[in-house]
Amino acid sequence: xxxxxxxxxxxxxxxxxxxxxxxxxxxxxxxxxxxxxxxxxxxxxxxxxxxxxxxxxxxxxxxxxxxxxxxxxxxxxxxxxxxxxxxxxxxxxxxxxxxxxxxxxxxxxxxxxxxxxxxxxxxxxxxxxxxxxxxxxxxxxxxxxxxxxxxxxxxxxxxxxxxxxxxxxxxxxxxxxxxxxxxxxxxxxxxxxxxxxxxxxxxxxxxxxxxx
Amino acid sequence: xxxxxxxxxxxxxxxxxxxxxxxxxxxxxxxxxxxxxxxxxxxxxxxxxxxxxxxxxxxxxxxxxxxxxxxxxxxxxxxxxxxxxxxxxxxxxxxxxxxxxxxxxxxxxxxxxxxxxxxxxxxxxxxxxxxxxxxxxxxxxxxxxxxxxxxxxxxxxxxxxxxxxxxxxxxxxxxxxxxxxxxxxxxxxxxxxxxxxxxxxxxxxxxxxxxx
Lengths: 212, 212
Known about the structure:
Two copies of one chain form a homodimer. Chain A is an all-alpha fold. Chain A has a domain at 65-205: Tetracycline Repressor, domain 2 (Orthogonal Bundle). Chain A has helices at 7-37, 44-51, 55-61, 65-86, 94-108, 112-125, 128-153, 162-179, 186-205. In chain A, helix 1 (7-37) crosses helix 4, helix 4 packs antiparallel against helix 6 (112-125) and helix 6 runs antiparallel to helix 7 (128-153). The first copy, chain A, is elongated. Mean pLDDT of chain A is 91; it is low at 1-5. At the A-B interface, helix 6, helix 7, helix 8 and helix 9 of A face helix 6, helix 7, helix 8 and helix 9 of B.
């Protein structure tokens, strides 16, 4: 052995990289697969084939479909939130900022990730085993999304009504995403988001006036 | 025959009534069944059993599951909208009115009908045949819901931003309904809707000021 005692260690690193890359491919393929074909058709075997990974390797990473699906939603959500947060540096101020953030939120809720997430939620609503896992995941992703949006908007949640207005923004995004599920209603969505941005900007600015 | 030539006609009416009652039982059972068990498990046979109707009779009314499911969403939506509209006479004025209407909308989107509708939309998003029928139905129910809400709010849609704010209210309701799918978040929902009502009332009142 050329590298003496260190060869095993050196070999282990690329193997770990490969293993991580395989895992990521599976997670991304799972989201695409669920978004396009629904939850029922997205078994570990189907996702493995889509990712170009052997069924055995896929099952080594994710023994059950619940493992694969919840890990996929968690991983891709974290990625999307990191991308969303990265916009923070380029944001303008005032109404223009609120508008841009609201547009980014609208985009997030019409992505394949959200299509996949809706499918997983609906499947979980009539599947006890999946439900338990998804409830915790949903709460965690919801909290993180809220935190990122507060940061992007520069919102002061100690002001009355601001916290609820930020939550309403995420609920509105979710509703618009659901409306977009069967047919693209992008034009309508942009008008609705524009109006909401105007209303939200006023609440963020007038936060010390009692609003409710 | 005691009633002479008229007996057939007299017999036909109760038969039509019975047929209509059977149809309604099937439609209501379909919504309950989909809301609880999801779309996949809600076949015509399963719904027929729940409604206490023979499989043959069910198939006479609804030859395919697509017929049953889309008719159910249409029928129960029309019923719910009629109930919603009936509240128009008791509504207070000003912010109190907006609050009450927003509360009614929140309730509509957390009902079994909406749970069933989400299941149908999601199933339709990966089922070409169902999709075609659901897209038309969704547009129709959406238009009618919008009209009823405009009426209940007493909103003047010729004012800038008002139409979009009403649409946003329905999109928000949809998003809140989706958030409620896996676990009851009624407390959070009430706070969000309260804040929303305050912002919406301002837009409805200040409609002549440019808002966006």
